[in-house]
Design a protein that fits this description.
It contains 20 helices and two strands. The chain is an all-alpha fold. The chain has a single domain, classed as Amino acid/polyamine transporter I. The N terminus is likely disordered.
Length: about 475
């Protein structure tokens, strides 16, 4: 199939649409809401100035996150196909180099790599739903909870079992299509996520540590603000919205024509931020009420919180609810990570969606075994420097591929796509507003990501160069 034939086929290939603007908002918010919201944002907010950091973060979301997300969704809705075919057809319409198709490939590959290890870590949450509800942590102390987690990571068979369970659920959902699969899952998972969050919030409110948790996240701690605070806030604003991996471009292809992109994307960002803050107000009061140390990452989620729940009345019930909550958050993210590659293969080869989903799932599962083994039998095998297989994939995708994709998406949408198409998609009629938007989305936002990109890579480059 030639490029022109492929592009023509692709343009006809995406016939599905979100049933409503709000379902797209819930799906995109589900993509953005993941493990990072729960185990990272609340902690870095508390450690980097509390309320000051939150204010800086919201400013970065407005100046960096939202403009790039609008750009990505805009390209998806204009292209009406997978990220690869969208970039191929739009670069032709813009009279730009065909090399811009590589931007679509970059997003697809990035999402696929992230899904390969995300599926492994998300599988842990399914295991901890069972452990919590079965009372495995009842009366446990810190040493035994930590030992349970270490033993779980050391057992490759256990990790593979839960990885397989999580990936099978993800592939089954996406294989059913946009309406019967993704939308149906979102209709259940997102309301349940909000309900579980509300239940845990009420539980946290009565834990005895709510005032401390609130103070940790929202007190104005000016002494904790440094030159790195803005960089941290800007990086979090970019990464939390699932930008640069083709997800929003793929989901954007299904957005109805009458949906206002600006208000829609602002709603997604607001929902994502709300859930991140609410998660902090659930987690830290429980931690403080039990006199435990705050932290972030797997240690907080799989050691500190199980210990906290074990010391509280009805802890096994609420601990199970908590891990069910993050399982739902993880599955909505995983669904979106699958879509860019899946939509491309369905369009390119006119293949059945279920068959492609299964094939992708198997390949992703096999790649995920490298992450499984990184926690046990391959833990000492380094790929680059002190990065094992999992560390290398995580660093490559999060610190190089995602920001690179985000910068290029904003540049293409603002400066290469014919402005008439861009203005039509955004409903812009005032030339002054159009230029202001192009400066924000085409200069300020990508430069912000570039600063984070360079600041993240510089220590590594300096070490390699002996500087």
């Amino acid at each position: 199939m030639t490029n022109s034939e492929s592009t023509s086929a692709a343009s006809q290939g995406v016939g599905q649409r979100w049933s409503s603007r709000w379902l797209f908002i819930l799906a995109a918010a589900g993509s953005a809401v993941g493990l990072g919201n729960i185990w990272k944002f609340p902690y870095i907010a508390g450690e980097n100035g509390g309320g000051v950091f939150v204010a800086i973060y919201l400013g970065c979301v407005a100046a960096v996150g939202i403009p790039i997300m609008i750009s990505e969704v805009l390209l998806g809705r204009q292209g009406r196909s997978s990220p690869i075919h969208t970039m191929r057809s739009l670069s032709q319409r813009a009279g730009a180099s065909g090399r811009w198709t590589a931007l679509g490939w970059l997003g697809v590959v990035t999402g696929f790599l992230i899904l390969s290890y995300y599926g492994v870590i998300a599988g842990w949450t399914l295991h901890y739903v069972w452990l919590s509800m079965s009372g495995a942590f009842a009366g446990a102390d810190g040493a035994s909870v930590g030992a349970t987690f270490d033993a779980f990571l050391a057992d490759p068979w256990a990790l593979v079992f839960y990885q397989t369970l999580f990936m099978a659920l993800t592939i089954w959902i996406v294989g059913r299509g946009v309406t019967r699969g993704i939308e149906a899952a979102i209709r259940w998972f997102m309301p349940l996520l909000f309900l579980l969050l509300l239940v845990l919030f009420i539980y946290s409110l009565n834990s005895g540590g709510f005032a401390q948790g609130w103070a940790f996240m929202f007190d104005l701690k000016w002494d904790a603000v440094s030159s790195d605070t803005v960089l941290i806030a800007m990086g979090q604003a970019f990464f939390t919205l699932s930008l640069g991996m083709g997800t929003m471009m793929a989901y954007g292809a299904y957005v109805p024509e009458d949906a206002n992109l600006g208000t829609t994307v602002v709603s997604i960002a607001a929902l994502d931020t709300f859930i991140a803050i609410a998660a902090g107000l659930v987690i830290f009061p429980i931690v403080f009420a039990n006199g435990l140390e705050v932290g972030q990452g797997p240690g907080l989620t799989f050691v500190t919180l199980p210990l906290a729940f074990s010391q509280m009345p009805f802890g096994e019930v609420f601990g199970g609810i908590f891990f069910l909550l993050i399982s739902f958050a993880a599955i909505t993210s995983a669904i979106s990570l699958t879509e860019p590659a899946l939509s491309y293969l369905v369009e390119e080869y006119n293949a059945k969606r279920q068959r492609v989903a299964l094939s992708l799932g198997v390949i992703c599962w096999l790649l995920g075994l490298g992450t499984v083994f990184s926690f046990n039998i391959w833990s000492d095998m380094m790929i680059v420097g002190d990065l094992n297989f999992f560390g290398f994939l995580d660093y490559l995708s999060q610190n190089i591929m995602l920001p690179l994709g985000g910068m290029l998406i904003a540049f293409f949408a603002m400066w290469l796509l014919p402005k008439e198409l861009m203005y039509k998609q955004l409903g812009i009629t005032n030339p002054a507003v159009g230029w202001a938007w192009r400066i924000l989305a085409g200069v300020v936002a990508p430069v912000g990501v570039l600063v984070v990109f360079v600041s993240t890579l510089w220590p590594v480059l300096a070490s390699l160069l002996g500087l």
